Amino acid sequence: MRRIPVWALKPGMIVEKPVYDLKGRLLLNRGLELKKDYIHHLKRMDIPFIYVQDHFIPDVKVEDVILDETRARATNAVRTILEEARRQPPGSNLGLVFEQKQFEEIVDEIVDQLIDNPELMINMADIRSSDTYTFAHSVNVAVLALTIAIALGGFSRKQLTQIGSGSLLHDLGKIRIPLEILNKKGPLTREEFGRVQEHPREGYDIVSSQGILDKNAASIILQHHERTDGNGYPYHLQEEEISPLAKMVAIADVYDALTSDRPYRKGFPPHKALEIMETMGDIFDNDMLQALLGHIAAYPVGTFVQLSSGEVGIVVKNRVGFPRHPRVRIFFTGKDLEEVAPHEIDLVGREDKTVKKAFSEKEVINIIPHVFPLLKNGLGKGSKK
Q1: Domain limits at 36?
Q2: Which of the listed ranges 46-50, 119-123, 156-160 does the model predict with the highest average pLDDT?
Q3: How many CB atoms lie within 10 A of CB 329?
Q4: Inside any domain, residue 299
């Protein structure tokens, strides 16, 4: 399986991970052969990449930590709630029209799937367009925050569902913020940033007035921008004044924002985002931060990397607790990418070899193809069916 930017897709490639639309409807199913019209439609929908079959590493699959169907249903549930809330005038006492039972079932599914897979690393990026950013971001934050809680242990099932529910709706208050501020490409003015800082309180007021979430879940919405050093908002709370559930969601929120493309900047690759997060120990609970960092692959499966030895290959496995020490299948060596007999190197416990560079998808497509091009059937020179 390989992640391919939509601009680099070719007819004949085979879809490996399903693609869903804004309403959670299946657009492209696993196993479908791409046609020119399908690729054109993906570009029109502003979908940045998809996962395709890759005969370069045919035995390597990238596992998501939750099922595709669950992610799609959760994304659609968040969309339904936010769009219904947006239609209501500020201060309205009208109840949100959504299925509370269905929402709770989705949260339970996410919790169950994460509990069942405690050793899975977060290797895969979710497929999101600019139109689905807010909804997909909320689902990712829920997954990441729950990953922290499960890794730390000691949280009851009720608390896990509170984390899931609160994090899915943590950005509810942004429906009250003008889109021209949320999507502004340049720096925000002081007044604009002040308006953005109101969204935790706005979201909390919505769920509190309508009884959507219990008190602990609602506190996540109110406090997810508070920081342990007191420099967060809206109340500048510190340390123990902040709900531990909100502390986890705060970390998850920042990590997913760092790795996501936004109108004002491109997302950072995971290894860069991890470096940035590691400098934030003063504003986050350090134990919670380390719990998340230990479950995120700095170099996700399928990433082309160059080792300090000059060898070049593809990451085929990551292990919990060793985010920067993947198992790499080596195919090339040296500046000229001379082909070598494929073999694997596990960097866990190795002091003589480290990852020196991670290639972007654009670099792979521009540099690697002279040795091993991606053809329309997914095969390259020297490949074996």
Answers
A1: 2-52
A2: 156-160
A3: 18
A4: no
86 and 132 fall within a common domain:
yes
Q: Three-class SS of residue 294?
A: coil
The 10s digit of each residue's pLDDT in 197-247 is 999 999 999 998 888 899 999 999 999 999 999 999 999 999 999 999 999
Q: Are residues 219 and 164 in the same domain?
A: yes
pTM more than 0.85: yes
- Whether 339 is covered by a domain: the verdict is yes
The end-to-end CA distance of the chain, in Å, is 15
**pLDDT of 375:** 44
What is the C-alpha to C-alpha distance for residues 71 and 128, in angstroms, rounded to an integer? 11
User: What is the total count of domains within the chain?
Assistant: 3
Question: Last residue of a domain, which of 293, 319, 346?
Answer: 293
Beta-carbon contacts of 223 under 8 Å, excluding residues fewer than 6 positions away, are 200, 235, 237, 242, 243, 246, 250
> What CATH number should be reported for the domain holding residue 162?
1.10.3210.10
CA angle 34, 259, 43 (to 5 degrees): 30
Helices (H), the chain: 36-44, 68-87, 100-116, 133-152, 157-168, 179-182, 190-196, 199-210, 215-223, 244-258, 270-278, 286-293, 361-367
For 78-108, write each residue's pLDDT tens digit: 998 888 888 877 666 556 666 678 899 999 9
| C-alpha dist (Å) from residue 366 to 47, 61, 96, 161, 267 | 21, 24, 49, 45, 21
| Cβ neighbours, 10 Å, residue 112 | 14
Q: What are phi and psi of 149, to 5 degrees?
A: -60, -45
Residues constituting the chain: 385
How far from 363 is each of 224, 308, 312, CA to CA, in Å? 36, 18, 13
Residues 104 and 195 placed together within one structural domain of the fold: yes
Nearest-10 Cα torsion for 175, 181, 187, 190: -90
